[in-house]
Amino acid sequence: MKIIVKDNYEDLSVFAASIVADLVKRKPNCVIGFATGSTPIGMYHELARLHKEEGLDFSQVTSFNLDEYLGISIDLEKPYEMDQSYARFMYEELFSRINIKQENINVPYGLAENPDQFCRQYEEKIKSLGGIDMQILGIGGDGHWGFNEPGSSFDSRTRVEKLNSKTIDDNYEAFYKKAGVSKEEMPRYALTMGIGTILETKSALMLVNGEKKADIIQKALEGPLSTEVTASAIQIYKGDATVILDKAAASKLKNI
Ligand code: PGA
User: Fold this and answer.
1) Closest Cα to atom 1, ligand 1: which residue?
2) Which active-site residues does the annotation give?
3) Which fold has domain 2-201+209-233+244-251?
């Protein structure tokens, strides 16, 4: 595992985007696993800039998102209403800014009639395309990867997961509050790739930003491997793992 510390969020974002861009240039038909949350937004905007100004070509790229809230999905007819889906987030922050083909985009479908069946098919589709070449990851305030809340086993697969109160509080502050949605109206469940699914990806790019993540990333990287901090699974990741932190997020690490 490589651990890279950048001075600030902008440097982290530009550097992370350069790693994704290298993959897209090296393997134009690569499969990328995207993540949502505030952290990757800077990287997504930099990828959009590379597309616009330097012609970075996503036309053959396939994407799979990590997770989605259960019960909501993008409504392209009225995208600015109360829809806080991760599908909408991805369209706004990345997909509408690059030339990825609609048919190559996969985001767990929050309105699936049979979510369990949908999750099984999602896994099958990832496998049928040869697996994920690079998975973008963050870390939640409770140590989650995707929406794998504390207690999720390391061999968990794509499934429905109940969100815990820390995640609901964090995502309320980061997204729902601004959209005028009350905490009570927020979804309580999500579809998420499992830790086992993530561990099968070929490379991982984990982004961690800000002082508020300093304690939890220290636990994930240097603490015991534990399902209480599901992102600690990075310690047993067999592919090529790169963790990029800004200085504030790295401030509690002992072994830099
Ligand atoms: P954040 O979320 O980037 O908004 O901090 C990360 C996560 O919950 O995995």
Assistant:
1) 37
2) 67, 142, 144, 149
3) Rossmann fold (3.40.50)
